[in-house]
Amino acid sequence: MAYFITVEGIDGAGKSTHLEFIQSYLNKKNIQNKLTREPGGTEIGEKLRQLLLHDDMDVGTETMMMFAARHEHLITVIQPALQSNISIICDRFTDASYAYQQGGKGIDKSFVKSLEELVHPNLTPDLTFLFDLDPDTAHSRISNERNLDKFEKQSSTFFNGVRKVYLELAKAHSRFHVIDSSQTIDQIQQVISKKLDELVK
Ligand code: TMP
């Protein structure tokens, strides 16, 4: 059995720390897996990521490019892995397009939905961890770190919109597990282990 696990959250909510933990959990259970990310995860996808994270563009262009990168990722990495019984841990997936392009930038939900139906009509994650944190705390966590990309430089109004859509998605889909990112790393890892125990049992 191969699992498709995605990890989401606003920038600065701390998901990166926990991606490797999820991978080491699967490794310990001898579940073959691959850790990958969006936008990116393929040669073309990583090139598109550079444009997406650093160049300003119309939000429609941005949304279609996210899905172009996703299409390449699905065809060349995600679907072949799942078909070969290799689980996927994906650092962001389509939920991020709803949260960022719809919730943050205000594109119509139907625009994202049409692309979702076109690009992956029959695939949804088995489990989605949503790292939730208030945007001001999240921003203070990243602002000292390095040169910020175009999304990380957005205002707290933008991130409130992103967070709102993420939380709406979490309410609507039982595959979501919301994690309060203000907890300690140990507390968070206990929650993740418990949820993964339920998934792989
Ligand atoms: P990250 O990999 O450092 O989290 O950065 C990826 C950025 O891209 C992040 O700010 C969220 C954004 N993004 C979107 O706006 N839409 C998407 O569909 C995806 C996958 C990411």
Task: Annotate the secondary structure layout.
Blueprint: E1 4-9, H1 15-28, E2 33-37, H2 43-54, H3 59-83, E3 87-91, H4 94-104, H5 109-119, E4 127-132, H6 135-142, H7 156-172, E5 176-180, H8 185-200
Helix pairs in contact: 1-8, 2-3, 3-5, 4-5, 4-7
Bound molecules: thymidine-5'-phosphate.
Thymidine-5'-phosphate is lined by residues 11, 37-39, 53, 66, 91-92, 96-97, 100-101, 151.
Walk me through what this model shows:
- This protein has helices spanning 15-28, 43-54, 59-83, 94-104, 109-119, 135-142, 156-172, 185-200; strands at residues 4-9, 33-37, 87-91, 127-132, 176-180.
- It has 201 residues and is of the alpha/beta class.
- It has a domain at 4-32 and 92-200: 3-Layer(aba) Sandwich (Rossmann fold).
- A five-stranded parallel beta sheet has the order 2-3-1-4-5, sandwiched between helices.
- Helix 1 (15-28) crosses helix 8 (185-200) and helix 4 (94-104) crosses helix 7 (156-172).
- The longest helix is centred in the middle third of the chain and has 25 residues, at 59-83.
- Bound molecules: thymidine-5'-phosphate (TMP).
CATH topology assignment of the domain at 4-32 and 92-200: Rossmann fold
The averaged pLDDT comes out at 96
CATH architecture of the domain at 4-32 and 92-200: 3-Layer(aba) Sandwich
Strand order of the largest sheet: 2-3-1-4-5
**Bound small-molecule species:** thymidine-5'-phosphate
Radius of gyration, in Å, reads: 16 Å
- DSSP strand content: 5-15%
CATH superfamily of the domain at 4-32 and 92-200: P-loop containing nucleotide triphosphate hydrolases
CATH class descriptor of the domain at 4-32 and 92-200: Alpha Beta
- What portion of residues is helical? 55-70%
Number of strands: 5
Element-level helix/strand string: EHEHHEHHEHHEH
Could you list the spans in which at least 5 consecutive residues all have pLDDT below 50?
none
Keywords: ATP-binding, Kinase, Nucleotide biosynthesis, Nucleotide-binding, Transferase
Family: Belongs to the thymidylate kinase family.
Organism: beta proteobacterium KB13
GO molecular function: ATP binding; dTMP kinase activity
